Amino acid sequence: MREYLVTVLLAAIVTYLVTPLVRDLALKAGAITAIRSRDIHLQPTPRWGGLAMWLSMALTLVIVNYLPLVHKSFGTEATGIFLSGTFILLLGLLDDRFDLDPITKFAGQALAAGILLIYGVQILWLPINGITTLPTNFGQILTILFVMVVINAINFVDGLDGLATGIVMICAASFFAFSYLLAVINGLNRAGAPSLITAVVIGLCLGFLPHNFHPAQIFMGDSGAMFLGLMISASAITLTGQVDASVITEENGGSALLPLLLPFTILAIPLLDFVMAILRRIKAGRSPFTADREHLHHRIMRYGLTQQRTTVVLYLWTAMFAIPTVIAAFVPIWIAIIAGVGIFLASLQIIKSGKKGLALNE
Fold first, then answer.
1. Beta strands 132-133; 125-126: pairing state
2. Contact at 8 Å (CB) between 329 and 261?
3. Full-model pTM
4. Nearest-CA neighbor of 178 among 260, 55, 78?
């Protein structure tokens, strides 16, 4: 555990130090987000935050490769995730600078997922009539679709300063906690790609957030959103590979199936926002990827909450789904329910106090 904590802290420190340099580079290159009708921010802001994250990840991986335990996490899967992340980053950098069309971005996302497949990062089985090992071709298609959905879900939720960064950090922390505890309790290898990648992602978000929280000095841009989305989706897929489907029985099946359920509960808020946006726009006869001001964060802000409070509320709602899911894998379900209810009540208190503050100002 100490080596993974070192990994988190190292990634956070490097990201914090590198981000201002990347911000200056983005300004010189013209990678700047102009003010659009759907935007909340009031000033043009440089993008390319994803470049800062990738540089920090690369440097962190080079250094922690010398740690005895973490070194064992490096393998084919970790290599594939790094190369796929590099490809999606380059695609995002071009999009941040030149605003690529959706078809080009989707094709690039599919190619990035294809790189994962080449290195063995693939959904292998599903809980259908017990445990069903998937045919190779079907598993590959499902993997590509899952990666693309998560990438775009993170991209869609990136609408407020620090929102996507914090949500991904909570997701990564939940994935790390689950994968590490699963290894400890079941006597599995604690050194694996899921633990390594999620530890790095936690650090990247932790170091980037001070520059990205309101008022943001830099945005992660599509380069950062797609990069983090790929990291999270790849971690989820490799996590399922840690569970041996052949040992799942009625006695231990509940916790063993959680690796497949975990991504959907932990990513509940981004996925919900993504699905609602697609359905809303199709119903209105518009392209599913036409921007609007009807995302969850827009709706919450209409209650009179500030950007900061809205962001914190969505952090808590993410945690409300993520933390109880992880807890339920290792302790009685009632403890997980209490944790979820407590987090939800805390979010309601923030909403209530925010509305009260608005009333007093008026």
1. antiparallel
2. no
3. 0.89
4. 260
Per DSSP, which regions of the chain are E strands? 32-33, 45-46, 125-126, 132-133
Which residues, 6 or more positions from 124, have their beta carbon under 8 angstroms from its beta carbon? 133, 134, 139, 240, 241, 245
**Can you say whether the dihedral through the CA atoms of 36, 223, 201, 175 is positive or negative?**
positive
Look at the block and give the residue holding tokens 């899921």: 194
Model confidence at 127: pLDDT above 80: no
- How many CB atoms sit inside 10 A of residue 65's CB? 13
Q: Which run of H or of E encompasses 185?
A: helix 163-186
Alpha carbon distance 88, 70 (integer Å)? 25
Cα distance between residue 197 and residue 203, in whole Å: 10
Q: What is the mean pLDDT of the chain?
A: 85
Which amino acid would we find at residue 121?
Answer: V
Residue from 299, 319, 316 nearest 350 by CA:
316
- 223-247 burial: b if 16+ Cβ within 10 Å, else e: bbbbbbbbbbbbbbbbbbbbbebee
